[in-house]
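Shipment paperwork, digital attachment
Item: protein structure file
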Amino acid sequence: MKINISLHALFLFLFMSVTSGAFAASKIEFTLSFPEPQTHYVEVSMQVDGLAKDFVDVKMPVWAPGSYLIREFARNVEAVSAKNSSGKSLPVEKTSKNTWRVRSAKGNFTLNYRVYCFEISVRTPFVDTKHGFISPTGVFMFVDGMINHPATVTVQPYKGWSKISTGLEPVAGRANTFYAPDFDILFDSPIEVGNQDVFAFNAAGVNYEVAMYGGGNYNKERLKKDMTKIVEEETAVFGENPNKRYVFLVHNYNVGSGGLEHLNSTVLGVARNGYDTEAGYWGFLKLVAHEHFHLWNVKRLRPIALGPFDYENENYTTNLWIAEGFTSYYEKVILERAGLTPPERFVEGLAGDMAAVDNQPGSKVQSANDASFDAWIKQYRPAENSKNTTISYYSKGSLIALVMDLEIIQATNAKKNLDDVMKAMYEEYYKKKKRGYTDAEFKAMLEKVAGKSFDQIYQDYVYDTKTIDYNKYFSYAGISVVNDNANSSQPYLGIATDEKNGKVVVSNVSRGSAAYVDGINFNDEIIAIDGVRINAYQSDAQRAGEFDRALLNKKVGNKLKFTISRDGLVQQIDVTLRANPNVKYRMVADTSPTAEELAVRKKWLSLK
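Attachment content:
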């Protein structure tokens, strides 16, 4: 037996040596420069040394991990050329949408190209005279077969730019040069170049850097204090913080939103003048809590399909309701635990989330499981009928996490909660097995921690589209969920409108509503209702008020006569009013809960 194992090992070693020989001694170095930032280009020089092949294929990723949409970054690439170490031009042939074949590449060559960077988002590169934001999958190419190869990046800032912020490690003795042990790390490490305002704090034994671009009315000391609370509460969930250093890259715009997680950094987009309002500041902290929680949930504890990545194709998983939905739940839980959200507001927020999901007709059509799998074609491509056919794996997954949390607390007599599942999964699959988890493995851990089956929860709420029985789960904590719109006789149209070129145009028709049943369509121009002109030149609220007035003194079963224009043809449509199906939830806590209910409530809300 020992002889056979040794022979097999020898064969495997020889095979790997032969197949990797073309790349073994090679070196990859990037240089980034911004000679004309007003044109929104970054110039990229990619030097590849030590190849033992006559040609190589160099590729651009087509998507950014964490944002599940094929974005075709190669569309922004131009002026691709190659030269050998002697300066001789080499033939370059584009062989697919994102692949360039460099011939006569044996030895050393340098690939030069330009990338147009003018889309403002957390997942796309952007360059102007103020700064350069390098979202790596939209800028760096890789040599086919060399994803696991290390690389260095040297940044040449534009004149007047003095700072570089990134999670990449600096190379000793080389100014503005950074090291990535492989391209997975490189693609996971955004870079901010400019004159960003940088401040730091230490939390959970980790050095945190915050790089603020774009100005803003933020208070650094307040942010340090509150971000520290978030970091330490999240670290407590998993029992450790795996980073030595973490970087928040914050882009402050006139209007901004969104975030994208990375292994030891994140990019946040926010409104620069929103920090001094309660809603704006709380929204920023919630975004911080969400993206920072991802350093465990997604970047380390992950569905098995999400790594190693295929950067050229969709990476399908049915578990984004865990990866994103659970993170959406914890963003609120963490703020409550940190004392940044009072328990009452936390519970009120959950009631709003529950109503938002139940009031979306698509929640009865698409399951959390299917929403995860179809992210690539639906989540980031909303259309006029999306609300009728889809549900967000963020919002539905958050509510599934909520009921699972309460179920675990109840089943364990308030000794355990969802934290125990997350920590156990992190220990088992990230640290011990060093791989992602399957859907069955996550479910098995839930059942192990809770000591009971989760078959019904999975069947009803993960795989099926049943409305969550909120009262069942909140009753564990002595809380009732009341629908203030129950048995409503309020008439309801079910349309949303926009103002376009001085016209009131239908932007959405809710499935099953009066307008939907009687044939009001997306893109119809609404001219009048019951002969009364609808005025387009007003705010959304004022325009909504006109529809409210049209419903005044109307009852379910009454008819409204719509005058519309469809494709330039004016016509009349009678709409028979139906009852408003939308829910409006509120929580009512029993003032005399049982000892068991009180124990669940205290565990869930982290009350003393």
